[in-house]
């Protein structure tokens, strides 16, 4: 009988597809042409009263209009720059305090710093609301140890945030950034510790409550990044044995700075969001430029 044997496929040395170079060429050419179309549409755009554009200044170029239509990016960009001192203090306090101070003293000191910083940047009213809501969820979850209790007890702050935003703060960005993310941390902690604490040290209500607040007000995870409580404790434990990769940290910081500078610079030459709000100008564009604007908005 004829026996057919199949040779194992070496996935690491699998031959490249012959058309892959053509695919790259087509993709890169398409992207370049699309962004060129956005650039042409932007340079012909006439700013009007009521548009979200302001005169800005670029090094070596001078005064030029900048698109401020993207409210989220505009608020994030300015807020992140102003918030940098808090991260610097966190870096020193967290890395030095956790080494030389007893855990309870360090926890209280760090919470005092973090809550004070939040009161300065997010207003005392929102911080008080967050603390009150977190305490309510914690107490409710300890009285009735069910997940439904956690979700129901979180409804008040969700209702206020959705229906009385202006009552809580003039700037809704502060609510969406701080109150919403801190609420997620409270929910994660209370759900994950319903049956038993993840850390054996948190064997009393006071210790458990302090750990919840420490987790919630841990600055790197305070907003814009959702880290579930079990992952938080795992990462805290790994700090004792895991070697720090300073080059990787520096590389990540350089990437963030690079992309921030690139986006800020692009907004001086590419006005895709402002253009798409002007229906008359948008409908007058050639089809290639019109489609390119949709591509840029998706990016």
UniProtKB/TrEMBL annotation:
Has keyword Membrane? yes
What keywords were assigned to this record?
A: Membrane, Transmembrane, Transmembrane helix
InterPro entries xrefs: MB_O-acyltransferase
The GO terms this record gives for MF are: palmitoyltransferase activity
| Ranges annotated as spanning the membrane | 21-39, 86-113, 119-141, 173-191, 212-229, 249-272
Q: One GO CC term of this entry?
A: endoplasmic reticulum
**By its UniProt entry, which PANTHER family does this protein fall under?**
ACYLTRANSFERASE (PTHR13285), PROTEIN-CYSTEINE N-PALMITOYLTRANSFERASE HHAT (PTHR13285:SF22)
What protein am I looking at?
A: Acyl_transf_3 domain-containing protein
Q: What is the lineage of its organism?
A: Eukaryota, Metazoa, Ecdysozoa, Nematoda, Chromadorea
